[in-house]
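re: that complex we talked abt at group meeting.

here r the seqs, copy pasted straight from the sheet so there may be weird spacing, ignore it
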Amino acid sequence: MEFRKLLITAAAVGALFCLERPAAANQTLVYEDFQSDTLGTYSGAVGFDLVNWDVQSGRPVAIITDPTADPLRDKVLDFTTGAVNSGRITSNMGFDLFAGREYIVEFDVYREAAGGTPVLTFQAGDYTTSFNNTTFPTPGVWEHRTITFTVTTDFSGEPILFTHSGGASLTNGFLLDNVTVSATPEPSTLLLAGLGAPLAAWLKRRKKAKDAAASEEAAAA
Ligand SMILES: [Ca+2]
Ligand SMILES: [Ca+2]
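got the structure back, here u go
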């Protein structure tokens, strides 16, 4: 195949690829709505972890019914329950994080009451971010947050975690629900991978033909 034809074919394949997948879906790594968990307190001792999360000993959390009584939200995680500064959950759904790739974490968060200086921290690999009473100034309202993040080195089988600290009372912390962590698609990389094989094959054939011509010339000389 002539190189020009190959390029046209490649462009056509690329165009088709883009047309077929104009908005390739994000790859979901974690989804948690806490609906598989039983209402009650989880202390982090053996047998007292959540279905998909380990609870750190001494940092208990509770599964409660949504205080706004939204049936679609139903069960939610309460970070302040057994101790004022309690609340730390680490996912047991480890996954790989690649440096330079874009990830998105989304969750619903609810500040229980005004007062105090509660802090909620999200961590994935070497990325960490925190929210506090300034970031979530209004108590008694669910808010949805979407955060895009990257990590600076590769991580294998990495958990994500949420930590709560600084609440002034058991009823003055954060609630959490509907956590999603996803990786955004990499269409350019996929496209290159798709074009790489035919291009390599063409280069190989071209070299072979040149070598053959060279040896014919040498034989004729
Ligand atoms: Ca829920
Ligand atoms: Ca609470």
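couple things i noticed - The chain has a mean pLDDT of 82. Residues 33-35, 73-76, 177 surround calcium ion (ligand 1) (CB under 6 Å).
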